[in-house]
Amino acid sequence: MLENPRAFLFQIATNLGIDRVRRSQLARRAGIEEIEEESLSPAAEETVSQRQSLELIEQALNALPDKCRQAFVLHRFDGLSYAEIAVRLGVSQSMVEKYIIQALKAFRVRLKAAESPGSGS
Fold it and tell me: pTM here?
């Protein structure tokens, strides 16, 4: 389970808001006066897919070694720098970088496995 699911959801909401603003700016540049609200709402299938992706990421996060998971959460959700995380976890800054890379690779592997045809997910 995520250590801070609320922060994770806020990050997702922030990303969706940024996407919406970018789409609106693109539409203005393309000369489109207005984008209907319906066109901005994700389809039900897309919503289900996003939820499945979140579940996979949560599973991958929970499967990480403790310090790796802590480093990722401290960096992505709490906004700490690698140096601050290193001090907090009692490891080198280089180790923190390795933890973050390890976490990102784990997420990518889980998501790719789920996207592969014939995968068991």
Answer: 0.57
